[in-house]
Amino acid sequence: MKELVKIILKSGKDQSLRRRHPWVFSGAIKKILGQPAEGDLVEVYDNKDEKLATGHYQEGSIAIRMLALGEETVGDDFWEKRIGAAWELRKEVGPANRKDTTVFRLVNGEGDGLPGLIIDYYNGAAVVQMHSIGMFRNMEQIKAALLGLKGLKLDTIFHKSGNTLPKRDQFEVKDELIYGEREVGEVTEYGNNFSVNWLRGQKTGFFIDQRENRKLLEQYSKGRSVLNMFSFSGGFSVYAVRGGAKLVHSVDSSKHAVDLSRQNIESNFPDCKIHEAFATDAFDYLQKIENKYDLIILDPPAFAKHRNVLNNALQGYKRLNQKAMEQIKPGGILFTFSCSQAVSKENFRKSIFVAAANAGRNVRVLHQLTQPVDHPVSLYHPEGEYLKGLVLKVD
Predict the structure, then answer these.
(1) Contact, 339 vs 302, CB < 8 A?
(2) Is 339 marked active-site?
(3) What pLDDT score was predicted for residue 312?
(4) What is the pLDDT of residues 48-107, one digit of tens each?
């Protein structure tokens, strides 16, 4: 193994690493002893020449993503051990052991000690998504580690990082099969069936992180008129129908998503008469609902992917939720979410508070929601808790 480039931090900039945070920002670097290429393993030292960590180097604000702390090395068996540990955790805490669920997150980036790597499992297919060049350069090792997992049925590995990796001339990144030949699949979640297209679908093909929140929604749906905004493949809509809703409407700006929601409803409830889907703008639709619904789901795409647009994002959440609160029937239930990592729980809640105050409604919090157990969050990396949600009673 060749000697690694040494990176020295400025005085005082080592504290976050000592607190086990997995990132080093470019502004913390004092000196680079060598010329690391993007994705190279580098060693990080403090200003007094104490080794702190080893990680992937990358140009940009997040300059180094940590793989090992202290004197631990990243050896030949690193990928097998880390991905193996992630698989063991899913077997221990679920949902990998559930017979009625065949879709879950297998690797969740920093939460599994693998910053920049997401792997989602879809009933025999693993969809791999990278957010760092270092992970991209270790594709073959990651593939080998996946194929070596004991007890995991795996016939397909699909690489989907075309829109998540930084654009670099020296790297051609395209979404493609790297093992097997499937680009679509059928999965089961708590007994509900869903079609998944990891080539065309958002994220890796399905919003796995809302599994437990969809199940909770089912409990509130009986006898209610349900509006599922930003519905994508209709996940919440399927649970609402199963929960006994009297009316379910799915709304998404994408015709493809609307077609998929209809397909998933039909797959679970042939000849369903209570579901309709509309391809239209969410804000336009909310202007016209006039107390038609008493259960509304707001699960928009990330309004803020970077902190420099945080204020605009918070205004967007406020405007969206205010309109829903103004329109929902008295006594209605509002499931509202933010999946923006840059938006903290506190900021999201403040936006909802302002929305409620402006709407002039009495609003109570029934549940505070987050991502499920297969999306673990490192205690040292609170940014990993990206999904925030509230269930509100709007009188």
Answers:
(1) yes
(2) yes
(3) 84
(4) 999 999 999 999 999 999 999 999 999 989 999 999 999 999 999 988 989 999 999 999
207-394 belongs to which homologous superfamily? Vaccinia Virus protein VP39 (3.40.50.150)
Q: Which pLDDT does position 307 carry in this prediction?
A: 62
Positions in the chain whose pLDDT score sits under 50: none
Report pTM.
0.94
Residue type at 331? G
Q: Are 251 and 285 in contact (CB under 8 A)?
A: yes
Say how far apart CA 45 and CA 4 lie, in whole Å: 12
Where are the chain's structural domains?
A: 5-69, 78-189, 207-394
206 close to 187: Cβ distance less than 8 angstroms: yes
CATH superfamily of the domain spanning 5-69:
PUA domain (2.30.130.10)
**Measured distance CA(320)–CA(142) in Å, rounded:** 40
Provide the pLDDT for residue 306.
Answer: 59
Q: What is the pLDDT of residue 346?
A: 93
From the candidates 67, 146, 339, 352, give the one annotated as an active-site residue.
339
- Please state which CATH class domain 78-189 belongs to: alpha beta
